[in-house]
Structures are given as structure tokens and as C-alpha cells.
Design goal:
By secondary structure, this protein is an alpha+beta fold. About 35% of the residues lie in helices and about 25% in strands.
Length: about 190
């Protein structure tokens, strides 16, 4: 059993726009016992929320947990964007760990819908291939946004997210009206 305190947590995908999953990955000393485990989350467009955190467990948060909706009301999807998360414990609040994560669940849900429509369309080969190229580009920007947030490049994370969202909007809006020229020019 560990005799030193080492705080850590993992943000675990829930594949759900309504929930945020955070698993405790800390090691705790047997003595003194830690008290008041607290997670502080800065939610984009909402603000900072401080909540109790269950140690050695998987904690799931939603709009009711964050006070965005009242208990008993329908839950609302959590916003995408950079979440600043700080986990701390007593006896001394100088024991903490902080991380930035880029939440992209809502954008990913839209991407998944567009991707599923791609496989069901009846278009000629060049157009279908162009659509795959376009969706791969969107996916690349989403992953870049996540990587930028993980390395504290917040402005770049937001820029890449916005670009991915715009590209996806354009893809959905213009879905089978592309010419396939980019695919033909770049891959033939």
C-alpha cells in the first residue's frame, strides 16, 4: 500500500453528450486519511462548479450535478469546449492536480451522423471518395483540437474546434452537391 499521496484523475469517454466521466487514478496514504476530496470544473459558457469527489471511484457528472438544471428536470447536453479541472484534497489544499480537456462530444455526435449518412448515399465514386476526404479532414481538426487542449494550447484548441465545426456544417449543408474534383485532382 502506498504511503505517499499522488493525486491524479482520468477523464473517461462516456459517449454521451449529457455526461462527463472522471475516474480517480490517485494513490492515497494509509495515514493520515485524506478528507474533503473536491473536484472543481470550469465549464465553458457556464462557469466554475465545485463538487464533492468520490475517491477510488468513477464519478459521473451531468447538468443536474453542475446546477445547470434542477434535479427532476430533463438533463441538457453539456457544452463542448475546454474544461479546466482541478482535483484537491485535505488536509492541505495545496495537494491538487489540474488538467485541461477539450470536450467534443456534441461535435462528435454530429460527425457520427454525417459519417453514417455517407455510407448510405448513392453517389458516383469520385463524389463518395471526396466526401470521405472531407470527413477525414474534419476528424483531423477534431483530434488536433483535443491534442492542443491536452498540451495547454487553449487558443489553438478553440481555433481547431471552430474550424472542424465549420467544415462539418459545410459538409452537412452541401452533402451530395460536391463535384468530386478534389479527389480526382489529388488521387488520380
Amino acid at each position: 500500500m502506498s504511503t505517499t499521496l499522488k493525486l491524479d484523475f482520468l477523464v473517461v469517454p462516456t459517449y454521451n453528450t449529457f455526461t462527463l466521466g472522471i475516474a480517480d487514478a490517485s494513490t492515497y496514504p494509509t495515514s493520515p486519511l485524506v478528507t474533503a476530496p473536491t473536484i472543481e470544473i470550469n465549464i465553458p459558457t457556464y462557469g466554475i462548479v465545485s463538487l464533492p469527489f468520490t475517491i477510488n471511484d468513477f464519478n459521473i457528472f451531468n447538468s443536474a450535478s453542475f446546477g445547470m438544471t434542477q434535479v427532476g428536470e430533463p438533463l441538457v447536453p453539456l457544452p463542448d469546449g475546454v474544461y479546466y479541472i482541478k482535483y484537491s484534497v485535505s488536509p492541505a489544499y495545496e495537494n491538487f492536480v489540474e488538467k485541461n480537456i477539450m470536450r467534443v462530444d456534441r461535435l462528435q455526435e454530429r460527425f457520427d451522423e454525417a459519417f453514417m449518412k455517407l455510407d448510405m448515399m448513392e453517389c458516383d465514386r469520385a463524389i463518395k471518395m471526396q466526401q470521405k476526404v472531407d470527413l477525414n479532414s474534419v476528424y483531423f481538426f477534431i483530434q488536433g483540437s483535443i491534442a492542443a487542449a491536452n498540451t495547454c494550447a487553449i487558443d489553438q484548441a478553440n481555433t481547431l474546434y471552430t474550424q472542424a465545426s465549420r467544415m462539418l456544417d459545410n459538409f452537412i449543408k452541401n452533402n451530395c452537391y460536391c463535384s468530386g474534383t478534389n479527389f480526382v485532382n489529388n488521387f488520380y
